[in-house]
Amino acid sequence: MNYHVMTLFPEMVNETLSHSITGRALDNGIITLNAVDIRDYAQNRYKHVDDYIYGGGSGMLIQAEPVWLCYQDLIKKTGSKRPRVLYMSPQGRTFNQSMAQALSHNEDIIFLCGHYEGIDERAIELINPVHVSLGDYVLTGGELAAIVMMDAITRLIPGALGSDDSATYESFYDGLLEYPQYTRPPVYEGLEVPEVLLSGNHKLIEEWRKEKSIERTKDRRPDMYEKYMKKGI
Length: 233
Ligand code: ADE
Prior knowledge:
The protein contains eight helices and nine strands. The chain has 233 residues and is an alpha/beta fold. The longest helix is centred in the C-terminal third of the chain and has 19 residues. Bound molecules: adenine.
C-alpha cells in the first residue's frame, strides 16, 4: 500500500505514522508514505498558498493553483492509473470499519488535506475526489483525519499486525464489539478474571466471548446490535 498525502503539514503526518504498528509497517515495507507539501507548488516567492475568501467570511482559503499543480505532479510521479483520491472533509461520508476494509485493497491512496477554511472549490472540482469525514465535528485540518484513516487501514493489511488473527477478533469485525480481555494477575483489587478464561477449555472460552460480545454490543451500541440481529446470525 502506498499512501500519498497532500498537505501543508507533512511533518505532522510523517512523525505521527512513524510510531507503533504504522511505524513497523513502514520499516517492513508493508506501506510507504509520501507526504507532499502543497506549499512547494506555490507560484510566488513568499510561498503563500492561501488568500481571503471571495464574498467575505472569516479566515483564509487554500488557493486552487498550488493544490492542482501538486496533484498533477503527484499523479505523474506515482504512475498509478487509478489511484483512490480522498478529500478529508466534514461534508463527506463518515469513515467506518467497512470503508477501511475496502480501502485496504488499494495499491495507492491519495489523501487531500485542507487546512484553515478549506480549499478553493475549483481544485476540488478538477481533482474530483471522494469526500470522506471522520465524524460530525470540525477539525482544524484534514491531516488528523488522514492519519486516523491510514492507521485503521494499515492494521487490516496482511502482515501489519503481529498475528493475522489480531484484526479478526477485534471490535466491528463481524458487526459486534469486542469481548472484555484480561491479563495477569488473576485477582486485582478484589476483581477476579472470569473463571472460564483460566479453564483452558477453548470451546467454552469461545462461547463465553461471543456471549459477552453480544451483551456489550446490545448495551453500548444498540444501533449495531439491531443490525446484527437483522442479519440473522
Ligand atoms: N476536516 C475538518 N473536519 C473534518 C472531519 N470531521 N473529517 C475529515 N476531515 C475534516
